[in-house]
């Protein structure tokens, strides 16, 4: 199985972003995903304007997978369950 490279677009001090990273941690630990955390402020103006009210935003390449208030049900829907150890 290959590791899925995800990019999480966020901001410092973003509670929703911290919550999402906690939800993704078991997937990273299981080798299902690799998570790159990217600050919205470091992105081009067009991206900042598009996503300023939608963070966190999760991308797989150019594909936007999830955004906003992401809960565990949505993570499971998009990534599948974390396999038992």
In short:
The protein has 85 residues and is α+β, with helices and mostly antiparallel strands. The chain contains three helices and four strands.
What does this structure look like?
With 85 residues, the chain is α+β, with helices and mostly antiparallel strands. The chain has a single domain, classed as Glutaredoxin, CATH 3.40.30.10. The chain has three helices and four strands, in the order βαβαββα. The protein has helices at residues 15-29, 45-51, 72-79; strands spanning 4-10, 33-39, 57-60, 63-67. The protein has a four-stranded mixed sheet with strand order 2-1-3-4, covered by helices on one side. The longest helix is centred in the first third of the chain and has 15 residues, at 15-29. It is globular. The chain starts with a strand and ends in a 6-residue tail after the last helix. The model has no long low-confidence stretch (mean pLDDT 94).
* Helical percentage: 25-40%
Number of domain modules: 1
- CATH T-level topology: Glutaredoxin
CATH arch. level architecture? 3-Layer(aba) Sandwich
Q: How many DSSP helices?
A: 3
Uncertain residue segments:
none
Strand order of the largest sheet: 2-1-3-4
CATH class descriptor name: Alpha Beta
Shape: globular
Tell how many strands the DSSP assignment holds: 4
How large is the radius of gyration?
Answer: 13 Å
Order of helices and strands: EHEHEEH
Main sheet summary = 4 strands, mixed
Percentage beta strand: 25-35%
């Amino acid at each position: 199985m290959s590791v899925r490279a995800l990019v999480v677009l966020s901001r410092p001090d973003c509670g929703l972003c911290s919550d999402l990273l906690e939800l993704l941690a078991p997937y990273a630990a299981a080798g299902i995903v690799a998570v790159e955390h990217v600050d919205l402020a470091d992105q081009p103006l067009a991206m900042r304007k598009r996503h300023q009210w939608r963070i966190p935003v999760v991308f797989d390449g150019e594909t936007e997978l999830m955004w906003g208030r992401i809960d565990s049900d949505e993570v499971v829907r998009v990534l599948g369950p974390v396999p038992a150890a």
